[in-house]
Design goal:
Layout lengths: L3 E8 L3 H12 L5 E5 L10 E2 L16 E2 L11 H9 L4 E3 L5 E5 L7 E3 L9 E3 L4 H10 L5 E3 L2 E7 L4 E6 L5 E11 L3 H7 L1 E3 L4 H8 L9 E7 L9 E7 L4 E6 L7 E7 L3 H4 L4 H16 L8 E6 L34 E3 L12 H27 L1
Parallel strand pairs: 1-2, 1-12, 2-9, 6-15, 10-13, 12-19
Antiparallel strand pairs: 3-4, 5-8, 6-7, 10-11, 11-12, 14-17, 14-18, 15-16, 16-17
């Protein structure tokens, strides 16, 4: 089998991988391939329509609701905000006007309390965060992004890195690459990929010890024709000690449908024992308890359990949540030095796990490749 060849392979088609591919293309680097195991690009960016059906994030749309990342904070994350501006996307402020509800126990009725505005201001994108994916895909050369391609093995040779890729039909493909950008969580890379030679022990330990943000979580969204809770002077925000959702927000789309979104407070290990339909039933009951009977019958709803997604979570992630310090993105010595760079969001020192972290890590990785190329040119000239 004749191997395919290109200079740079990006492993992972979430925001980090797409942003890196776009920055490389802007610099005139065309010999790039992006390999994504999922059937569609987007990674942890996942959207559903008003019926609660999953939609292809490659397609621009207004009426989409996020089950992955939803917010960003321009005042704190100017790098991401610049990308949003560059891509011509519309942003709007998260709705917080009105009272919020607090449900302290099953023996107490929900209490209204004064709502609060986010500081700094939290923003959302028209069309959801999938708008980022659609905009980047529209700008990339069609041949760059290849979905349904699962990288299994990376072998470091003297002149190149050999990637073994599974296309899902049982036909392995081999790529010969100069450099690899890992646009995936460190723990997932260390767990799912085979490295030959193995990663340096300390680096592997650090990668394995880095939790994947969102991996233990599950999220639920219910879509309605109108934001009827606002008629009651409610913001759509709620906090609950009863559950199953611990935190709820209004994620209505201006010009589109209304929606309520919640983070489940039920642990990943408990969720394993319960079907998604049972969890959705309990979520609808909770919304009715909080916002009235109209909330019990959304026009569509959806639940995403990220802990059950093998392309997001490992067994170690089920009990390990939160944002941790970023692991080193590359090896300081040995066979993998200069050949392998981690650019997934968890490798960002500033915003590990966030959308802004994906952009930060991706742009840093592209700059690192540029510095390495400059060094090689200087070495060749002398």
């Amino acid at each position: 089998m004749t191997p395919q060849r290109t200079r740079i392979a990006i492993v992972g088609g979430g925001l980090a991988g797409l942003a890196a591919a776009w920055r490389l293309q802007q610099q005139g680097v065309r010999d790039v391939v992006l390999l994504e195991a999922r059937a569609t690009a987007g990674g942890r960016i996942l959207s559903v329509d008003a019926r609660g059906s999953r939609v292809d994030t490659a397609l621009p749309a207004l009426d989409r609701f996020d089950l992955g990342p939803s917010w960003f904070w321009p005042a704190m994350q100017p790098q991401l905000d610049r990308l949003v501006t560059e891509l011509g996307l519309e942003r709007f402020e998260q709705h917080n006007e009105g009272d919020m509800l607090v449900e302290r126990s099953a023996q107490q009725l929900p209490q209204r309390v004064r709502g609060y505005a986010s500081d700094p201001i939290s923003m959302r994108l028209t069309g959801g965060t999938g708008a980022l994916v659609a905009a980047l895909l529209a700008r990339l050369d069609a041949a760059v992004v290849r979905t349904g391609q699962t990288v299994r093995r990376l072998r470091c040779e003297s002149t190149h890195v050999e990637l073994t890729v599974d296309d899902g039909a049982g036909d392995p493909t081999t790529w010969e690459i100069e450099r690899v950008l890992l646009a995936m969580p460190p723990r997932l890379a260390a767990t799912r990929l085979q490295f030959d030679p193995p990663l340096p022990p300390d680096l592997a330990r650090r990668w394995l010890g880095t939790p994947t943000w969102m991996a233990p979580h599950a999220k639920y969204v219910a879509v309605y024709d109108t934001p009827f809770w606002r008629e009651q002077g409610l913001s759509g925000g709620a906090r609950s000690g009863v559950g199953p959702m611990g935190e709820i927000h209004d994620v209505s789309m201006p010009g589109g449908h209304a929606a309520l979104f919640g983070f489940l407070g039920v642990s990943a290990r408990v969720r394993r024992q319960v079907s998604d339909e049972v969890l959705r039933t309990h979520c609808r009951a909770q919304l009715a308890r909080l916002f009235g009977e109209r909330a019990h019958t959304p026009r569509g709803d959806a639940l995403k359990d990220w802990a059950a997604d093998p392309l997001t979570a490992t067994e170690d992630d089920l009990d390990d949540a939160g944002h941790h310090a970023a692991a080193p993105p590359c090896s300081a010595d040995g066979a993998w030095q200069g050949r392998l760079i981690g650019i997934g969001s968890e490798w960002s020192a500033q915003f590990p796990g966030y959308l802004a972290g994906a952009v930060d890590a991706a742009e840093r990785g592209v700059r690192q490749i540029g510095r390495e190329n400059d060094r090689l040119r200087k070495d060749a000239a002398t």
